[in-house]
Every structure is written in C-alpha cells, then in structure tokens.
Amino acid sequence: MLDVCLLGTGGMMPLPGRALTSLMTRFNGSSLLIDCGEGTQVTVREKGWSMHDVDAMLFTHYHGDHISGLPGILLSMANSDRTEPVKLYGPPGLRRVVNALCIIAPGLPFELEFNEFNDVEEYISLNGYEITAFKVNHNVTCYGYTIYIPRAGKFDPEKAKNNNVPMKAWNRLQKGDNVEMDGVIYTPDMILGPKRKGLKVTYTTDTRPTEGIVEHAKGSDLFICEGMYADPEKRADAIKKKHMTMQEAAEMAARADVGELWYTHYSPSLVNPARNIKEMKEIFPRAVAAKDRRTVELMFEED
Amino acid sequence: MLDVCLLGTGGMMPLPGRALTSLMTRFNGSSLLIDCGEGTQVTVREKGWSMHDVDAMLFTHYHGDHISGLPGILLSMANSDRTEPVKLYGPPGLRRVVNALCIIAPGLPFELEFNEFNDVEEYISLNGYEITAFKVNHNVTCYGYTIYIPRAGKFDPEKAKNNNVPMKAWNRLQKGDNVEMDGVIYTPDMILGPKRKGLKVTYTTDTRPTEGIVEHAKGSDLFICEGMYADPEKRADAIKKKHMTMQEAAEMAARADVGELWYTHYSPSLVNPARNIKEMKEIFPRAVAAKDRRTVELMFEED
C-alpha cells in the first residue's frame, strides 16, 4: 500500500486554508517528501503524519514556494530525535541553496546527503521506491517525478519445481533476494510468474506541458499536475511564466490515460478551482480539483 | 492610535492553530514587524492586515522560529508591488543571515537596509515610532524591544502669547516642526504644555528574566513576554535553555507595573496555557494567556 497525501495545493504564496504545494508519500515505513514550501510542516501535523520517517526530500526546483519550509522541517526533525541521514535530491544548486537556508538550522543531529541531477532523466532506488526524475520546462531548471512501487510476479510452485529450486530457498527468493545453495545461484524469476502491475504516481508542477510529462505519466494511477490558471485566456500568461492552464493539464492526463488527475499549485488569484472542474472533466473525466491534504491509499490490484 | 497584533504565540515550531511568535504594529500608515517565523505571512492574511506597508522588520535573534518566514514575506511584498526600501534591524549577523535566506528570494524590487546593533541599547526613530532595542539574556545574542509613540504637550495659547510666537507659526509648531520667521527660530515647546503620556509596548522573548527587561517594561501599556513553560518544575529547563517560566514573566510584569501582560512563545508541549492563568493572576492580575492574532488598539489617554 502506498499512502499519498497532497499536503498543500497553493502556488506562489501560502494562503489561509491553502498551503503551498507539497507531496508526501508513505510506503513500508519510509516516507518521501516532494517540495516543502513555508508551512509544509504544519500541514503534515494537521494530517496527523510525521516528519520523523522522511528518508528523502525531492525538489522540483528552488523557487521560494517549493523550498522555504525546509529549515523549519529540518529543525523539527531534529527535535523529534531523528538521527538517520536524510537524502536530498534536486536540480543543480541543491547543496548551495540548502546550505544557505540552513544558516538558521545549524548543528542538525543527522547528515544531509546531497544528490544533484546531471541528466535529463535520473533514477533513484530507495527503500522500495523506484523514482524517476525528469526535466520539465520552467523558467529555471525544474524536474518532475514519477514514483513507482514495483510488484513482483506471483509465486509459481510449478515453475519453481521445473527449475529445480530447493524448497528451502523459496521464502527468500519470494522476498526478492538471490540465494546460493550447494554452489548454485537461484534467482527470484526462477520461482515467480511475470511481474505484476505496480503503483505509480507522477507529480509535475511549474512547467509548460511537455511530451516527456505525457510519456512519464503513462500508466500512472495518479497524476498530480499544476493547474495554475483556470481561464483559457490566461494561456498567454501561462506561456510567458512557464506554467500551465487546467485545460492543458487535462489534455496531458487524457493522452497519458492516467487513473486520476489531481490539480494543484493554484494561482492565489484562482479562488475556487472546483468551479472549473466540469469543463475539465469533458477533456479528462477523472480530473479532481484537489484541496489541501487530499489523500489516497493506492493498493495493488487483486490477483 | 497604535494597533498591535500578536500574530502568533508559538515557540520552536509552528503547530496547527498556533503560529510562531511575531508582533505586528500599525501607526499612522506605517507598520512594523518583530520576528517572522515560518507562516507569519499567513497569519497576517488571516488577520486581514497587509504586509505592503511594513517599513521595518526587527529581529530579536536568528533562531529559525524567529526568521524562517522572511524570504516568503519578502517575495509576497514583491508580489504586492512594494518598491519602497524595507529597513531591517537586529543583532550582529543580520546581513549575513538575511542574504543567505534570500538565495530563494532573488531580484526583489525594493532595497533592504541593514541595521545591525552594536550596543547594549540602541534607539530607532522611524515614522513616529520611537523604538528601543535592548540586549536580553539568551543562549545567542538576543534583543528585546520597546515601541513608544510619544505624545506632545497640549497646545497652550497663553504660553504662545507669553513667548511672543506669531500666530502664523502655531500650526506648524503644533506638528512638531521648528519655524523660522523674521530671523527668529520658534520651537514647539514655546507653545505646548508638558509632554503627555504616550503609548508604550514592550516585547521580549527567548530570554531569562533580567533587570533590563523590568526597567524597559516600566510604564508599558502592554508587555508581551514569553511564557515558554508553565510548570514551576520546568524552571531548571528554563534556566538551562535560557528561556523563562510564566511565573517569572508575571513577576517581572508586577515589578514593572505594566498595563497588561500577554504571554507568548509557548513550548509546543504546553497545550493549554490558559489553564495556568489563574495562578499567574495571583502574581500579576492583568496577565493574559494570549492566543494567535490577539489584538489591541491602544489609544492616547483622554485629556
């Protein structure tokens, strides 16, 4: 099960009742956070989740509304007695920006591990999460993220027997380990059927629509995408500021045929994004004008 | 009239329903802000006040919970089309800390004017505010603030006539200007009675009790002081961490004989500070367990 919470849905500045856009996931005791503007730690508390187990923080880019909450979060994690290292991922400049902000969070009791992206696509394997970061199109270097929880094939005892895998090895092989016995190396694929559908979430904000986003979003159970502007007349603004309209996001969701589209990163001037959702549903029926702390528990399909 | 709003009352970390401690005042079209932790800009919006006219921001010290909201505030002020310079005041390190944080708030359309304190006491005269910063006793250099709105004496036409002040000069002299006429310089004191009581607010947080606080708080209409701990048994913690208990603050308020004491900067572990207010009132009857956005309009006394 993958818990996904869109902690906030605001762009540019936090508003009463609309925190800055940030995504948190929980899987198998390990949490991820994508972006953390000012106030993110409050929304985590409002949700009743904990920052303590956030093993990695991923940044789309370093505009203030996506990272201004970092020093406060790190201080609060320190207060919650975290001592395990925290991995940080993001575009070039990560170390410089985080170290500058940490002038007000000195002496943390855990290490920060910096991982700056060099390529158009980067892959991260972490605590059961398979994460792809991919470059999008904003006015500064900005990445989108796909979080994938793979699911192994079903145990196939016939196959195991046909491959002469000793029964003693079955349990460990089912957990995904290779096993050596009597000089023979057994691999999980020798006892498992074809890989099954995993869980997939794609998150993009602060970008024009791109082919890359459509490609990466394909097969996602959930596609979280900015809906900065609702009025189609704002498209010129969106192009100029390298953001997108709700309509453009819906068109990408339709092309990628995702499970659900959640809008986020609304302009402060967009007071009621739900008002526009009917039109968006004509483009993509499973579009949702998300509000702060919208949550879903994604489950593997029944066999 | 001096509007005073204690925007938040939390210490260490922002909580749902309890923003970090920050004070905002409005006088004669000019606003001041003392401290601005993460989320302060949201409480300003919740209050319905505006950041646009904040001409000066004063910092007690640079622990994260007192300054982490600065970059977001500056970005929002930029979005509200502020172009006038913003004056910043605080202990040594101000420029270094603010410039580091502003890595995520580049290209502001207004100037930041840095004013770092060198002395144990510093005086600031700004848009009708007479401000005193005075060193307190925390584990880093930390200042308290007294904000004073002076009030000139009442116009005394007898005195003006006795001093041979031409009637033409009376209006400008009443506004506080010196006036030169026919080679004679006239000063406001030549037409005004003795100075009248002004408005005074003292704000101290993150400190042990000190004699200096008591001295500066004397005559204050309002004394805003940390009440980090409620349980008298926490006094050892307070001494160690250079904070204070609600009881210690009440004792200072009683000695300074202030108009009212508002507690703030509660420890996150202090869930309901109001529960302790009855005991505090035995020490100082006008003690208030302030909540976020507690506001008062201080008025000059009737003549």
Q: Proportion of β residues of chain A?
A: 25-35%
Tally the helices of chain A: 10
Strand order of the largest sheet of chain A: 6-5-4-3-2-1-16
Helix-strand pattern of chain A, N to C? Answer: EEEHEHHEHEEEEHHEEEHEHHEHEE
Q: How many strands appear in the DSSP assignment of chain A? A: 16
Question: What is the C-alpha radius of gyration of chain A, as a whole number of Å?
Answer: 21 Å
Instruction: Decide which structural class fits the backbone of chain A.
Output: alpha/beta
Q: State the separation between the terminal residues of chain A, measured CA to CA.
A: 15 Å
Mean pLDDT of chain A: 96
- Give the full name of the CATH homologous superfamily of the largest domain in chain A: Ribonuclease Z/Hydroxyacylglutathione hydrolase-like
Largest sheet of chain A: 7 strands, mixed
The CATH C-level class name of the largest domain in chain A? Alpha Beta
Shape of chain A: globular
The low-pLDDT segments of chain A are none
Count of the separate structural domains of chain A: 2
Oligomer category: homodimer
Polypeptide structure, described:
- The structure is a homodimer of 303-residue chains.
- The model of chain A has no long low-confidence stretch (mean pLDDT 96).
- The first copy, chain A, has 2 domains: 255 residues, 4-Layer Sandwich (Metallo-beta-lactamase, Chain A), CATH 3.60.15.10; 42 residues, no CATH class.
- The first copy, chain A, has 10 helices and 16 strands.
- The longest helix of chain A is centred in the last third of the chain and has 11 residues.
- The first copy, chain A, is an alpha/beta fold and 303 residues long.
- In chain A, the strands form 3 sheets. Chain A has a 7-stranded mixed β-sheet, covered by helices on one side. A 7-stranded mixed β-sheet of chain A has the order 7-8-9-12-13-14-15.
- The interface between A and B is medium-sized, with 31 and 31 residues.
